[in-house]
Design brief:
Elements: H1 4-17, H2 19-29, H3 36-48, E1 52-55, H4 62-73, E2 77-81, H5 88-92, E3 93-98, E4 103-108, E5 115-119, H6 126-138, E6 140-143, E7 146-149, E8 155-160, H7 173-176, E9 181-184, H8 190-201, H9 215-227, H10 232-246, E10 260-262, H11 266-282, H12 290-301, E11 306-307, H13 309-313, H14 318-328
Parallel strand pairs: 1-8, 1-9, 2-5, 5-8
Antiparallel strand pairs: 3-4, 6-7, 10-11
Helix pairs in contact: 1-9, 2-3, 3-11, 9-11, 10-11, 11-12, 12-14
Length: 332
C-alpha cells in the first residue's frame, strides 16, 4: 500500500523522468503533421510494453510514424510487407544449410528488431499471422532447436486497410486480443493537409530525425510507469467497464445486450490499467485518475467487443457501445 509520501516522491521522480515523452513527441511532430493521437498511443505502447493495431486508409503516415519513432530512439527498425505468399520463416527466420562446412546455421528474420512494422497484416495467411503473434506474446522465437529472446524494447505496429476485403485473411478474435490497442487513424483536417502539401512539394531535403532519447530513459520510464499508484476505486471502475461489456443488464444497459455477442476479455482489464498508468506518466502524474481511463478506453476496448448481426444492421459500432458504457458506469 502506497502512502501519500510515497506518491509525492514518485511524483517528483516522474516530473523529471517524463520530460523525454515531450521531447519524443516534438521530434515526431517535425515529420508527421497532425496525427497527435496516434503519436501519443505509440508512446503509451512503448511505456507499457504493448503492441498496436492501426487501421486506416493508405497515406496517413502509419509507416512514417513507426520508422520515425525508431530513429528518434536510435533503435533497430524492421518492416514486413505481408502478402498471401509469405511464409512463417520469412518473418522469424530459418535454418540454412552451409554446403562447404556441412552444417546448418541460423539466419534470423526481420522479427529480430526493436520496432516492427507489420504492414497490412490481414493480407497474410493464418500461419504467418500466428508466427508474428506468438513472438509478440512470448517475446521469443524458436528456430530449429534453439530459442532466441527478442531484445527490449520490442514494439509491433500492425496496420490494416479497412477498404479492401478481397485477398485478405481477417485476424481471428483471439489473436486480435493480443494487441494492447487498436487505433483508428483518421484523415487530417484542412489546415494539416495544406501543410502536408507544402512539405512534400518543395524542393528541400526531407527532415531527418536524429536520436533524441536513449534506451536507458525508456527503461526508466517503463519502470516508473509500473509504480504509478492505482487506487482500489479506480481498479473497480476498470472492472465495471469491462464487466458492462459482458453483462450489460447488470449496469442498466439492457438495450445493449442484443448488440453484444461477446464481451471484453481479462486482457482488456490488464491493458486498460497499464495504458492508464502510461497516460498518467505522460501527464507527469504519479497516480491514475478516471480521465486517464476515459481517454484511452476506446482504443483498448474497440477490438475486444463482438458485435451481433443486429448491431451491424443498425450501424452500432464498438465505439458506440463503449461510449454508452462510459456514460452509464459510475465514476469514482
Amino acid at each position: 500500500m502506497q502512502t501519500g509520501e510515497d506518491i509525492r516522491i514518485l511524483n517528483e521522480k516522474i516530473q523529471h523522468a517524463a520530460t523525454f515523452t515531450e521531447t519524443l513527441r516534438d521530434a515526431l511532430g517535425k515529420v508527421i503533421i497532425g496525427q497527435y493521437e496516434m503519436i501519443d498511443r505509440l508512446i503509451i505502447a512503448l511505456l507499457s510494453n504493448g503492441h498496436i493495431l492501426l487501421e486506416g486508409v493508405p497515406g496517413l503516415a502509419k509507416t512514417l510514424a513507426i520508422k520515425s519513432l525508431a530513429q528518434a530512439v536510435n533503435a533497430k527498425f524492421s518492416r514486413i510487407q505481408f502478402t498471401p505468399d509469405l511464409l512463417p520463416a520469412d518473418v522469424t527466420g530459418t535454418m540454412i544449410y552451409n554446403q562447404q562446412r556441412n552444417e546448418f546455421f541460423v539466419r534470423k528474420g526481420p522479427i529480430f528488431a526493436n520496432f516492427i512494422l507489420a504492414d497490412e497484416i490481414n493480407r497474410a495467411p493464418a500461419k504467418v499471422q500466428s508466427a508474428l503473434l506468438e513472438a509478440m506474446q512470448e517475446k521469443q522465437v524458436t528456430i530449429g532447436d534453439q530459442t532466441y529472446l527478442l531484445e527490449e524494447p520490442f514494439l509491433v505496429l500492425a496496420t490494416q486497410n479497412p477498404l479492401e476485403q478481397e485477398g485478405t485473411y481477417p485476424l481471428p478474435e483471439a489473436q486480435v486480443d493480443r494487441f494492447m490497442m487498436k487505433v483508428i487513424v483518421n484523415y487530417p483536417d484542412k489546415n494539416e493537409e495544406q501543410l502536408i502539401i507544402r512539405s512534400q512539394v518543395r524542393d528541400i531535403p526531407p527532415t531527418v530525425i536524429y536520436p533524441v532519447i536513449n534506451l536507458d530513459e525508456i527503461n526508466t520510464g517503463k519502470r516508473l510507469t509500473r509504480q504509478i499508484y492505482t487506487d482500489e476505486k479506480i481498479e473497480k471502475y476498470i472492472v465495471d467497464i469491462v464487466f458492462a461489456t459482458r453483462f450489460p443488464e447488470q449496469y442498466g444497459l439492457s438495450k445493449l445486450k442484443s448488440t453484444i455477442s461477446y464481451g471484453a476479455s481479462p486482457r482488456a482489464s490488464i491493458n486498460l490499467a497499464l495504458a492508464a498508468k502510461a497516460h498518467a506518466f505522460m501527464q507527469k502524474r504519479g497516480f491514475v485518475i478516471p480521465d486517464d481511463i476515459k481517454t484511452i478506453c476506446k482504443d483498448v476496448m474497440r477490438h475486444r467487443i463482438g458485435l451481433t448481426y443486429e448491431a451491424e444492421a443498425e450501424n452500432i459500432t464498438a465505439e458506440t457501445i463503449v461510449s454508452e458504457i462510459l456514460r452509464t458506469v459510475n465514476v469514482p
